[in-house]
Structures
1.
Amino acid sequence: MLPRSFYLRSDVIRIARDLLGKYLATRVDGRLSSGMICETEAYAGITDRASHAFGGLRSARTEIMYRLGGTAYVYLCYGVHSLFNVVTNLEGIPDAILIRGIIPAEGVAEMCKRTGKTTLDANAGIGPGKVAKLLGIHYSLSGLDLVDSVKNPSQAIWIEDRGIVIKPSAILTGPRVGVEYAGPDSLLPYRFRIQPE
DNA sequence: CGGCCGATCCACT
DNA sequence: GTGGATCGGCCGA
């Protein structure tokens, strides 16, 4: 399991790149499922117009973003999709990373059940709404701690390092998706993904 | 308290 | 390529 120190670092861009190749895992309803993270987006605290915490906004929802690095921030998008984010940096600094894509690993049968499909195609885990759907992550899980099981009953969500190293040359970088409203910040190269084969 | 809209996905054409 | 689903968060009155 990734240690607290991984998440407490101050460079959210660096952490977003480092998360590529790590394994996001859940145990929901007693069922283990996991996938290798292949796409992420960084959201840089109160100065990033694309961030929910832009301008230092605090609300019942965004309060989670101000917690200690290693906290799960999950919110509802378009009234339909739960999107899973990892909070990073020190307590009080609302940096976060959206997990946009996984390659399914363990629990494929369970993932099929959750999505109502018989098989998973190559794009089954690409898209942030699909990540949460496959892994059984619901926005009610927002605030769980990815490191300290005392704050994460039955350790429902965590991230593992299985020793996979992604070469920098295999990482594609570009602007974030769906943040046109963020003006100049919509152009920031804060999206990272492993080059597909 | 009302209204607008979003870090999306899928079915359908 | 397009539009509908679907609802909580946030803002302005």
2.
Amino acid sequence: MILELSVAKPYDFAQSVCDHGWVQLAPCYWDKERQALRHVQCLGTGKVALLHISAENTADVVTLRIEVEADTPLTTAEQDDVRQNVHWMLKLDEDFSAFYERIHQHPPLQERMSSGRGRLLRSPTLFEDVVKTITTTNTTWRQTIGMVERIVNTLGEPYPANPELRAFPTPQQVAAADDAVFTGVLKLGYRGPYVQQLAREIVTGERDLESLKHSDLPPQELRKELKQIKGVGDYAANTLLMILGRYGELAVDSEVRSLVSRLYFNGEAVTEAQIQDTYRHWDEWKYLAYWFDA
DNA sequence: TTCCAGGGGTAGA
DNA sequence: TCTACCCATGGA
């Protein structure tokens, strides 16, 4: 089955997907030959679908082609589910016109982004993105890839036609996994208990994480909410604000320190205040200005 | 062996 | 609000 979505220009699908490291984390996969994003997802009905998302440029718009495979034909509701998931993952709901306007004053950024970049890839659920963000803390990117792969391959629902492909596990599936699996198989280190606790809070109804996806709280309030999650500190909260389309805070980590030091301070060590000052004038677009600043 | 990687929680001031 | 210390894991 083929579903379609149209996106206003400028929009560079391939660049936008690949601009975020998330594309390297299971259950995402970038198919270079087809220039397509492959994704395994568990729909609301529990059905597991395999998606191949690619783009076609026409004169006026970019048309996204979503090829969906599943063991039985998708119902109308399931088709809507797929469209909504893809719409969310690719941030098609966000308006970047104000940011594109701002970068006119910055030729390097303008040149880099004029094709329509900035819509950084995210996951269908906020649960998946919080877990992935926690696995990026105090570790290397290679280890993050491994942690997420083990979470998906161990706990995720398999795609029936090819059980080697799995969806990201639901909070229920994560909460049901015992401690031995966390320590012996998933090897998340001290992050394990944070992921377990989050999954349990969602399952018991103690925390309604997904409602934050469409929250109209001001960024600072939203940030407070995110920091209530154990394992989410300043860096993770600001990363998640970006995921939620709020770009006014920098997620300062060793990568940011290194890039700001190299670009603006001749390789000398930088303080948090120096980093903040460097991007202060970008106001509500600081995160994107940093992200594409190289 | 030690250090540290896309940090965060906690206790104590 | 700030600081010191601890937290698994694995590669350099």
3.
Amino acid sequence: MATLEDIAKVAHVSKMTVSRAINHPELVRDELKTSIFSAMHELNYRPNVAAKALVNNKTQVIKFFVLEDIDITEPYYMKLLVGIAEYLAKYQYSLQLMTDEHLDIGVSDGYIITGMRDEDYDWIKRLELPVVLFGENRWHFDFVDTNNEMGTQLATRYALEQGYDRVVFIGIDVKEPFEYSRENGYIQVMQENQRMPEIHRFANHSHLAMDFIEATWSRITPNTCFICASDRLAFGIQKGILQMSPEIATDYGVIGFDGVFLDQVATPQLTTVEQPMYELGEACAELLLRKIKDNHYPLEERLLQPKLKIGGSTRKK
Amino acid sequence: MATLEDIAKVAHVSKMTVSRAINHPELVRDELKTSIFSAMHELNYRPNVAAKALVNNKTQVIKFFVLEDIDITEPYYMKLLVGIAEYLAKYQYSLQLMTDEHLDIGVSDGYIITGMRDEDYDWIKRLELPVVLFGENRWHFDFVDTNNEMGTQLATRYALEQGYDRVVFIGIDVKEPFEYSRENGYIQVMQENQRMPEIHRFANHSHLAMDFIEATWSRITPNTCFICASDRLAFGIQKGILQMSPEIATDYGVIGFDGVFLDQVATPQLTTVEQPMYELGEACAELLLRKIKDNHYPLEERLLQPKLKIGGSTRKK
DNA sequence: AAGATTGCTGTTACCGCTAACAAGATTTAC
DNA sequence: GTAAATCTTGTTAGCGGTAACAGCAATCTT
């Protein structure tokens, strides 16, 4: 494996100049840079990450904590993780994945954390390295998330455009910012259209949503669309309706939220608000690396735009 | 952060002796070791991974390639990944996750690869670092996998014990060792019990299995159990049967294979052959680290035992 | 009892890279 | 025209570890 020294010999300069050509190119004559870069290319130079890390007192490692129960959330985080990992790899960072803060053995340059419960903010705020959270929060940590409000706005508007008479929101029964945002998006669009909001909330389990449909079926008029705060709930609503009447796509509508795996498993496939998981992962990584480089980087809350993915669970006008 | 030098001062030895106490304890007097370890404890010593990596000409990075389309397989690999990552972290390795062999930028100490297609073995065999594959293969690479044969044996035996008259195998239409093993397990148990095997194969999509049920429903007698090569197919079979008759758990049986997410989404939950994904991940990592340490380590093919997870898609005797 | 062997610890050099400083050449200032 | 400022490159030292070797007692041979 070629080192700076090898490049230096071929380009007839000192290895310091090579190092500078990489890290502070503005300090090196263009002429030299040309021959240095061509030597690097010729010798297929790969920087030695360990040496760089040692001298910079960095680790080139990022820790990713998934604090939520992974059995339940499995599909959700895989693409996020890929986004994070591939972005990091580009900058020669690697990853340690942890599902429990207690087995935090080694050291790293920063943290990406997701699935926080209220009690977690306690130790998170004591961390001494840069942190980026995945998911809205009210504690003034940098975060990246889907624009949840916009997501339910898109969904609600679409439902109204398709001509559903009644548009009901099925929320998740948690006091989390993401849930408030999703409810807000729905409420706003309803009010803009002089419609009365109607919200029901359940723990995020499909069978609860299904039970709700079965229990209240007599009061659920045709031409109703359910805007759900998760695909899981949407899945349950859809199942409940199918159980009661096989005519879902025409008489009823269901819109989910997430667009991760479950929407495709449903029959018909769910119309859903798709979160750009891969891009969210990249954004987490990018923001974190920026904070590592510049430790006065101001607080940033980055919201990426979701997309409405039309499936068969809503009528086509 | 304390260094070897700091420990050395406190313990009144040279830093070399401290290094030895860690890596070759048999060369250091017990007396010194005691005071060295207590100094390490006192100063909360953490080895500097970069320094170690530099001097050993290692990277402390493992690459994990997921070559399969991640959209389809998302849930499947998450727990495997957690198993790999947590095991690696214990030994101060970190991870780079790649979904495409071409964006292989940096360097690493070894590879874990999964989702290989036939054409991939070409470049895999040219890799110059230790490799462990996740998944049976016929090319004499070290691998870790579930004992697929045992999985379908468990399933088939269970189906027979529950008294199903007809036990049919629904396979995945690929020429892969894992599929042959699963079919073999089924065939063996059928023959042991003087039953005639009956196998149908489809691409691994639930709707194909569902269509199959609908198309051949007239010939599907009650008291039949379907042993499926994946939860995806089982999910489709179950849906098909539910469409035709709501009495699945009593008149028919469905057993899946994987036990990853999808089995829990089904209603009723699928009886399935559960792969120990977390442990498989750990095993991949362990085997790889062993091969990195000892490059004459002999070829190893490690099969972990699956478990039958009883759900509501089969009758209880 | 002298030389050889063993057991344990310290010294040196180096892994590949970069910050800090040194130093020469060129330009600018007055 | 000379001192100062600027630009560009090289030299040195050190990041935190470990292998290789050196050195010195204690023990073993014969």
